[in-house]
Amino acid sequence: MDDITRILDGFTDPTTGSLHGAVFVVIDSSGKTIYERTSGKASFEDGNSTAPQLDSLCWVASMTKLVTGVAIMQLVEQSLLSLDEDARDYVPELKGIQILRDMGTSIPPQVLFWVPKSVSNISR
């Protein structure tokens, strides 16, 4: 685990790292936490050197596509979702969606909503 700690700490090193602060957690397939560590700073404020805590709230930024993709693939693994079905079957709110054609006029979508076949399709 010392190698993992050294590598992860490198990401939050103020001179060479690419992250300001981070919470790292590794969970095995049985759900057991096998590694947890915080590193860096919890705040962007000057003079604040407080380290993040394991339960710190973090800004997720543009990671939502990744999180959504992982969640979708987990549901596929559990046979709770199929990649070959219309997404409107899973999210009924999509059934009423309209596309704005011009100011004051909207039309129904001309193609089916689809569940992406791969994570790379989600980022389009």
Structure description:
By secondary structure, this protein is α+β, with helices and mostly antiparallel strands. The protein has a domain at 1-56. The chain is built from three helices and four strands. The strands form two sheets. The chain has a two-stranded antiparallel sheet. A hairpin with a 2-residue loop joins strand 3 and strand 4. The chain is flat and about 55 Å long. The relative contact order is 0.11.
Give descriptors for this structure.
single chain; 124 residues; alpha+beta; two-stranded antiparallel ribbon; 3 helices
The number of strands is 4
Radius of gyration: 21 Å
Mean pLDDT: 79
User: What general outline do the C-alpha atoms trace?
Assistant: flat
Helix-strand category: alpha+beta
Q: Strand content of the residues, in percent?
A: 15-25%
The largest sheet is:
2 strands, antiparallel
A few lines on this structure:
The protein has three helices and four strands; from the N terminus they run αββαββα. The chain is an alpha+beta fold and 124 residues long.
List strands and helices in order, with pairings.
Elements: H1 2-11, E1 21-27, E2 33-40, H2 64-77, E3 99-102, E4 105-107, H3 119-122
Antiparallel strand pairs: 1-2, 3-4
